[in-house]
Amino acid sequence: MLAFVKMAGFMKTLADLSLGESAIIRGFSNTDIAQKLIEMQCIPGETVQMVKKAPFGDPMIINVSNYDLIIRKSEAQLILI
Known about the structure:
Layout: E1 22-24, E2 27-28, H1 31-39, E3 47-53, E4 60-64, E5 67-71, H2 73-76, E6 79-80
Antiparallel strand pairs: 1-3, 2-6, 3-4, 4-5
């Protein structure tokens, strides 16, 4: 089951999280990359935590499904929380 959310106004994305902050994945804003994100365990309903960001915010390390995942900021901006 894929969850795609239409962008109605401003919605917070994974890229907006501060270090140590956690959130629940609500869906994706782009259908083209959704399958790749799901294969990386970024599944709607899963809790995700921001672990670390590079000096300019790209890439970033998140913890999802009890493992650390390095993700690009451009991908994190597609994950709605």
